[in-house]
Amino acid sequence: MSNQPIKLPIDDLIPDIINHIKTEKSLILQATPGAGKTTRVPPALLNLFDGKILVLEPRRLATKLSAERVSQELNEKCGETVGYQVRFDKVESSKTKIKYITEGIFSRLILSDPSLKNISCVIIDEFHERHIHTDIALMLVKLLQNTIRPDLKLIVMSATLETQNLQEYLPSAKVLVSEGKNYPVTYEYLNLPDSNKSLFTLVPIAVEEVLKNNSCPGHILVFLPGNFEIKRCAENLKELSAKYTFEIFQLKADISIQEQQKIFLKSNIRKVILSTNVAETSVTIDGVTGVIDSGVAKIAGHGSWSGLPTLDIMPISQASCIQRAGRAGRTSPGIAKRLFTQLDYNMRSPFQKPEIQRVDLTQTILELKIMERKLKESFKFDSSFENLFPWFDIPSKNNVESSFGLLKNLNAFDKNNNVTEIGIKISEYPLHPRLGRILVESESKNILAQGILVVSLINEGTFLKRGNQSIDIAHSDIQYQIDLFKKIYLKESISSYKKDLIDFNATKRIENLAKQLCHSSAIHFSNCFKLISDEDLSLILLSGYPDRVCQIRSQSKKNISGRKEINLCLGGGAFISPSSVVQDSELLLAIDAEESANALSQSNSTQIRICHGIEAEYLLAAPEGFIQEYDEYIWDNENERVRGYQKLVYGKLVLEEKQIKEQNNKHEETLIKQLSTMWPKPFEDDKALQFLINRVKLAKQKGEKINIPNFLEEDFELLICHICENKKSFKEILEKDLDEYLDELISYEDQKILSNLFPSHIKIGKGRKVKVHYEEDKPPWVASRLQDFFGTLDTPRICNGTIPLVTHLLAPNMQSVQVTTDLAGFWERGYLEVKKELSRKYPRHSWPDNPKTAEPPEIILRKRNK
Asked: Which domain holds residue 768?
């Protein structure tokens, strides 16, 4: 039966497209949703090229539907002239000239054939969505065009396109615009009081309101974030469909071809189509006059811990809201009902941030490095990695550097960032490099089948529902779920408690992925359930997560909530989720975690959901750099001593620690550092040092040849090293006074010179010893009671009588009554006045008329009370 295609807005632009692409290598095509660009442009180019035409689509469903639609319009089966390829699914033949593929497939294709020798034209559809694979495809095609494939054609198509940056990137590309007719759309927003209702409640209410609205005589398209929401809303609409006589359709990736065709066939019965954002721009459904927009979608991101791709339900941008609403005005005026407030809309970002700025780049960097290697080997490219690839949007430096770091940890890159053989094997698997590394390690141990089940579990986020506290305790969440998955698959008995925890949709996804990986590896799926030892499981997981080793903190540091806290091998902390069955292992591999923005501290913000207990001995298999053995010497502030430890560490985790008891130079070095920092501790003060230095300074000023270091300044380190020699504690240092340490560093000759010229004490009167004070920038001085100087006729002197000592004469209360360097003059001129005043205050003390001849008081030695 002939499927005569209807006329679409893009048809008028086809001649211009053909004429331009004949002469130029690039074209930018802007066409509104429903214009027909996806299905009309590729077949229009069939006769222009000898090679194939690749059409890159952002989603699997759009890829399949587009190929099916074009095949129908060519009156052929899909797989003849037109085929498609998505992950684990391919329909094509030797006659296929147009091939619709998902963007991720393009990266795999160009890895196997860097020159795209059988491809004449690459069409990148829905460029405005800016998926990471879109940017990579654009970059790689431009690279080929500018080097080994100047004949390669490129068409970039989009529903909404900011063309200025793209034109600058593709300077030879002409911009063609297809202005499809748009009818007016009436917008309705959610009232604020209803904003707390769930989506499953809001959708039926909104559908009924739109059904009753005269502005919507046609079908209703409902945008929902994912399959789960579509299924729930479909169930909630059944009663309403009987009341208003409409059919409910679910537009999602896993529907059958028959269901797909029903959605697009004309019908007199109204349709309510529940769709993901695939219907936003990728797929056009005729006859839609009503749109209900949930305002959210599953936005691609990546787990900060696992690095694996994630699809998180998040608000869409204003541009996406406009695209969705526009679906209601393709054939006639329509209505767009938004399940959020106008204020919410106004607060949204105008456009979605490109994925290349927000997703993990590890897999991308690995693929680009392999392509770089192939280009250099085959085509003698000599540019560096940084200069070889012409990024459309340059990713953040931190993101790129962290990807390189992880690939080194996975042994995919060597120390010079060159791809290793392991890296090449990892790239053969359509998985994140962490999981690819696990499969490479599994294959080396002849347990690839078991490894496939492990990575399938991890890739799909496991299948136990979140938020539940586990009542089981086991060594590994992974092994625990493998055992449970096996029971599910073999339909063995499972307790009702565990059944309630299981997400059976997730188990189906895990099974499908595992079967697909088994098929591509020529392995029977049943082999996945063969036993795997704890050692093998630990080693394959460690190969993919060497940077995720953790250690339980001591019980004294238990989290205030009772949850066990852990230290991470790269630094920082986290705690084990109550939902994990791993609660008693000292060492763990943290496979997946979730972050909390509301946590009170950093260590509480990371909750480890999935982990695997690992024995310390297995960690020896980690990549180079993680395991280190070294001696560490630290200062024990409480006991004021150096302690040495022999440590075996994994990153920042201490696996083994032994105290080093024998004294060595490392103890001494640490003690020196501590003494330098805390000086003059452990001594009460360093007056002895000051005393020595000031005497030495005076000696040098007098021209004396004396060889005593300046311990207070440039030779301070010499003194510190001497004090700390063969010691490791302050207690050992205090076995001697500071004076003794100083004396040990001064020769006998220098000590003798210094003592003779600048004594520490002099004798006055009847032999009383008086300390000589030497202070910086002051002349030397002595002090004692006035009566002690009776009979001393002249000022005491030092340095062979060349320096008079400043003499402080003290009253009986030890307060100075006279300071002089002319003691004889004081006896003659000042003494009588002082005597008159002090004799009244201190009548019991001797106040002779002639102090020069008077006897000083006897020296009385008093025994100290002990």
From this structure: 761-841
